[in-house]
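Key result, reporting period 2: structure in, sequence out.
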């Protein structure tokens, strides 16, 4: 597995790289001091660790310019509030900077395992039984007492599942935004205090009652 580390703090980067190499987890890591040199690189990476607070073009701007590149993203930041500034399928999550390098690397290994492990769920739908990758789910909603699942390609009714057990089965991918709708937090583009924009142009209403718990759950899932 090939990893890019884009971080302007050379001392911190050296500590991270040395700890990664000491773990002997079978990865190659390439270091970039700024976003410009990373974007100019022709190397293909499985995922990139992007410092959000880079000089010049920062990590969030880098991620937005990588839409056509098949590289997953992990943001690195010391400012918790900034984890809400970028969303999307390519973003696996966030690592919060700290003095405990070993803890940071443990969390990084979790992200590596997430890439390598294909997570899917078996469902009974109106078109028969299917296995669907969790990352392909955009939303699950209850409409007229029926439960529907929306993916990039279609919307299907699913049987023998409630919103509650779908939440449990999907390992934290789905988060409630109101009493009848859950969205895939890894497929979110942006949100306000009353609406959420998902990929594929899907807009859902987030209720005031669920706003606080939604933010808390989002941080719990993608920011360690």
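The corresponding designed sequence is given below.
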């Amino acid at each position: 597995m090939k990893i890019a580390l884009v971080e302007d703090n050379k001392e911190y980067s050296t500590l991270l790289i040395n700890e990664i190499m000491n773990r002997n987890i079978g990865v190659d890591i390439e270091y970039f001091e700024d976003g410009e040199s990373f974007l100019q690189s022709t190397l293909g990476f499985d995922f990139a660790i992007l410092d959000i607070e880079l000089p010049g073009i920062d990590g969030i701007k880098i991620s937005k310019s990588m839409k056509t590149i098949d590289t997953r993203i992990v943001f690195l930041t010391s400012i918790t509030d900034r984890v809400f500034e970028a969303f999307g399928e390519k973003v696996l999550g966030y690592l919060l900077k700290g003095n405990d390098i070993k803890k940071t690397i443990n969390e990084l290994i979790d992200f590596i395992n997430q890439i390598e492990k294909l997570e899917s769920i078996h469902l009974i739908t109106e078109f028969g039984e299917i296995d669907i990758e969790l990352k392909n789910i955009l939303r699950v909603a209850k409409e007229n007492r029926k439960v529907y699942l929306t993916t990039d390609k279609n919307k299907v009714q699913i049987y023998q599942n409630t919103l509650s057990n779908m939440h449990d089965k999907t390992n934290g991918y789905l988060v409630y935004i109101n009493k009848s709708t859950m969205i895939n937090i890894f497929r979110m583009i942006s949100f306000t205090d009353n609406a959420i924009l998902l990929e594929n142009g899907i807009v859902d209403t987030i209720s005031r009652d669920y706003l606080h718990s939604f933010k808390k759950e989002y941080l719990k899932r993608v920011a360690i």
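Residues 101-116 form the longest helix (16 residues). The two ends are 22 Å apart (CA to CA). This case is discussed further under Risks and Mitigation.
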